[in-house]
Design goal:
By secondary structure, this protein is of the alpha/beta class. The protein has a single domain (about 15-315), classed as Thiamin diphosphate (ThDP)-binding fold, Pyr/PP domains (Rossmann fold, 3-Layer(aba) Sandwich), CATH 3.40.50.970. The protein is about 25% helix and about 20% strand. The protein contains ten helices and 13 strands. A nine-stranded mixed beta sheet has the order 2-1-3-4-10-9-13-12-11, sandwiched between helices.
């Protein structure tokens, strides 16, 4: 009889130890694939979940932290306010690993101001945007990243140009900017691993189409038939008319080389164009990164891969000169002046 030896990381943990609760997202949602890749990355890196904290705002994407790293701490904040809460936690304990998961509405609309200031402050964290171009929890309104001239069954035509969150990050001096696609598991995993190893803010914008409200010919964020998602469809926050939620298969794409463009066929026959950054592309060239993203925007391409990385600049805890011992662990004796010290201050006044 052959006894299977479980595969463990350097902490002696199997991958199952990094899972969270069972997902309640729609069957086929790419957000579940992203959660799975976060699990893979954290397990392969051997992260200690006790020293990792997860943050999110409001939206389908912001439910995701419940589905990975179940032994870590987590905080689900207000709509668009995840950056402020994550900033406070990072200053209170700069020894923990901070992972934030947000959506294109949570980040690109109500939270855009907080997002920009988190980047300029260089809060040490991984900031993942699960980008689908719609507000899924409120039945499919356009978000700030929705494509111009895109049509929705219930919301007409979007007449506004989309916000490119990677361009916003570049303009705000973020030192790690990457984009991936939820159906490219290998690239997704490796980018998340690199982000977790980066000092400072690491932005990872992941295109993750909504199977329920953003599956139409005009959208550049959609699905093709692939392998079935292994998480069963469960209840969502609202009751939909019978037949409105399609039972879609999650998209997966084959390996394709750097510099190549891959055309994804969605359920309805429309197309999405993905292009991996060319092998000779230099992600340390800031001007080249701007040029690459602007060209991609004009051509309605999604450039994936590591778009920009530079030498780390001082993080917010370093700029604020927080002590080596985290603020959260300082005792009253460490922070409370003695009576003699207070008397000396008063005497000087």
């Amino acid at each position: 009889m052959t006894v299977r030896t479980p595969k463990v990381n350097h902490l002696g943990l199997e991958k199952t130890a990094y899972k969270g609760a069972e997902s309640t997202l729609c069957n086929g949602c790419g957000h579940d694939s992203i959660s799975a890749k976060i699990i893979d990355a954290a397990w392969e890196l051997g992260l200690d979940q006790r020293y990792l904290v997860k943050f999110s705002g409001i939206g389908c994407s912001s439910k995701s932290p419940a589905y990975f790293l179940g032994q870590s701490h987590g905080f689900n904040s207000l709509h668009g306010r995840m950056p402020a809460v994550a900033t406070g936690a990072s200053l209170a304990n700069h020894k923990v690993t901070v992972v934030g998961v947000s959506g294109d509405g949570d980040t690109g609309s109500i939270g855009l101001g907080q997002f920009k200031h988190l980047l300029r402050r260089n809060v040490p964290m991984v900031y993942i945007v699960e980008n689908n171009g719609v507000y899924g929890l409120t039945k499919g309104q356009f978000s700030a990243t929705a494509d111009e001239n895109q049509q929705q069954k219930y919301y007409g035509v979007n007449q506004l140009p989309p916000i490119d969150l990677c361009l916003e990050a570049l303009a705000t001096d973020c030192t790690f900017v990457a984009r991936s696609f939820s159906g490219d598991p290998q690239q997704c995993r490796e980018i998340i691993k690199a982000a977790l190893s980066h000092k400072g803010t690491a932005l990872v914008d992941i295109i993750s189409p909504c199977v329920t409200f953003n599956d139409n010919p005009q959208s550049t964020k959609g699905y093709e038939h692939g392998k079935l998602n292994n998480i069963e469809l469960q209840e969502i926050e609202y009751i939909l008319p019978p037949g409105l939620v399609p039972l879609r298969e999650e998209i997966t794409i084959p390996e394709y080389a750097e510099g190549e463009t891959f055309e994804v066929t969605m359920h309805d026959g429309s197309k999405l164009l993905l292009k991996k950054a060319a092998r000779d592309y230099d992600p340390t060239d800031r001007e080249a990164a701007f040029k690459l993203l602007n060209q991609a925007k004009e051509q309605q391409l999604f450039i994936t891969g590591l778009i920009f990385i530079s030498e780390p600049r001082p993080t917010l805890p370093e700029l604020q000169r927080v002590p080596e011992t985290p603020l959260a662990l300082l005792t009253e004796a460490d922070v409370r002046p003695s009576a003699d010290a207070l008397a000396q201050v008063m005497a000087r006044l």
